[in-house]
């Protein structure tokens, strides 16, 4: 098959798809990847015939870190309709339109409504990959008007159908918010397992690749907390921030633009992060409890799952002090029951069907 793989956001919209992309390539299918240039730089280039990255601001150093804003759930839900089903969708649809005449299958992330609609208008099967672990950020009833308008603009007779022909979920079913169940066409898929957990007492911290430049002084407060602890710590600030802006640090703290989280997280005693679904999953697979600072997007919903499943602690990014952060880190590191819950969820996640089984299903529905 000739497969177009598309994503509309940052790396967090690409990485959950990669196990499926690898399985498609391993089965002999021909892949084209389209998405933001900064995120395509992190893709395994050898599995794609073509990679076409759209320019984005994340490819350049940011001059400033914007102040933190209070979390506004209604605003975050509205962004899905206004942005992802609006201008971003039209940009994505235009980006893949030239590929569709010779395409058998489209694979895209769950808010790439432009790719979904373009495929549906062209009569091409589309596999939608979940990228929000909670399932709470994409709510079709709130999207109906926007998806109807998008469908009209794309020449469809009705609204874009957001779940596509197959809805691939690379998360354990228990991770999803019970109030927002997966659709009836869901296919559960095992993510990449990564290295086995071997905790060495270290700490890993990151605020991701989108909200890192909208985090106010949170990096500074995290660094001050890490300075209070006698544990090796690594803080990843993102490719678009210069580590030198944070000044000199104690010898046990390293600040990097980019780190290999797949190598570091399995050795961590705790992971501090923003509540991105990718970091949530990577922490579970690495066997590490989490301390979460939700700032926006789907992060508040992810934080709720961390709390409800007993996988870590949630702190207010606006008000958490260095002393509070340090105390919570110490408590989480010492909680053996919490780590046991993480490891049990890791085992459940790795028992999901392999990506190759999903590829077999997609091969049957592709034209």
Automatic annotation (TrEMBL):
The enzyme's first-digit EC class, named in words, is transferase
EC annotation from Swiss-Prot or TrEMBL: 2.4.-.-
Residues in Erythromycin biosynthesis protein CIII-like C-terminal domain copies:
222-363
Q: Name one Pfam family in it.
A: EryCIII-like_C
* Family matches, as InterPro entries: EryCIII-like_C (IPR010610), Glycosyltransferase_28 (IPR050426), UDP_glucos_trans (IPR002213)
Q: Which GO terms describe its biological process?
A: antibiotic biosynthetic process
GO MF term set: hexosyltransferase activity; UDP-glycosyltransferase activity
What keywords sit in the KW lines?
Answer: Glycosyltransferase, Transferase
Could you identify this protein by its name? Putative glycosyltransferase
């Amino acid at each position: 098959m000739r497969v177009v793989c598309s994503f509309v956001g940052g790396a967090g919209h690409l990485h959950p798809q990669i196990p499926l992309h690898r399985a498609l390539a391993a089965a002999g299918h021909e892949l084209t990847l389209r998405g933001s240039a900064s995120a395509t730089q992190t893709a395994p280039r050898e599995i794609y015939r073509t990679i076409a990255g759209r320019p984005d601001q994340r490819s350049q150093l940011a001059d400033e870190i914007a102040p933190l804003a209070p979390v506004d759930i209604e605003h975050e839900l509205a962004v899905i309709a206004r942005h992802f089903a609006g201008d971003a969708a039209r940009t994505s649809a235009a980006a893949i339109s030239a590929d569709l005449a010779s395409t058998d299958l489209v694979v895209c992330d769950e808010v790439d409504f432009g790719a979904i609609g373009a495929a549906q208008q062209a009569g091409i099967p589309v596999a939608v990959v979940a990228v929000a672990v909670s399932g709470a950020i994409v709510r079709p009833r709130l999207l109906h008007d926007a998806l109807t308008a998008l469908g009209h603009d794309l020449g469809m007779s009705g609204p874009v159908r957001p779940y596509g022909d197959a809805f691939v979920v690379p998360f354990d079913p228990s991770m999803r918010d019970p109030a927002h169940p997966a659709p009836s066409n869901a296919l559960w898929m095992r993510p990449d397992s990564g290295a086995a957990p071997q905790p060495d007492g270290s700490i890993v911290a990151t605020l991701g690749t989108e909200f890192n430049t909208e985090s106010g002084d949170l990096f500074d407060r995290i660094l001050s907390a890490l300075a209070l602890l006698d544990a090796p710590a690594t803080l990843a600030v993102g490719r678009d921030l210069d580590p030198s802006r944070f000044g000199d640090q104690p010898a046990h703290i390293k600040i990097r633009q980019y780190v290999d989280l797949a190598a570091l997280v399995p050795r961590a005693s705790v992971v501090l992060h923003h509540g991105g679904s990718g970091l949530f999953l990577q922490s579970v697979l690495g066997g590490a409890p989490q301390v979460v600072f939700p700032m926006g997007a789907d992060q508040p919903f992810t934080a709720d799952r961390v709390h409800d499943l007993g996988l870590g602690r949630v702190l207010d990014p606006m008000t958490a002090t260095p002393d509070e952060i340090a105390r919570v880190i110490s408590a989480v590191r010492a909680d053996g029951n919490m780590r046991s819950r993480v490891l049990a969820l890791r085992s459940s996640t790795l028992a999901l069907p392999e990506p190759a089984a999903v590829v077999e299903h997609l091969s049957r529905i592709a034209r």
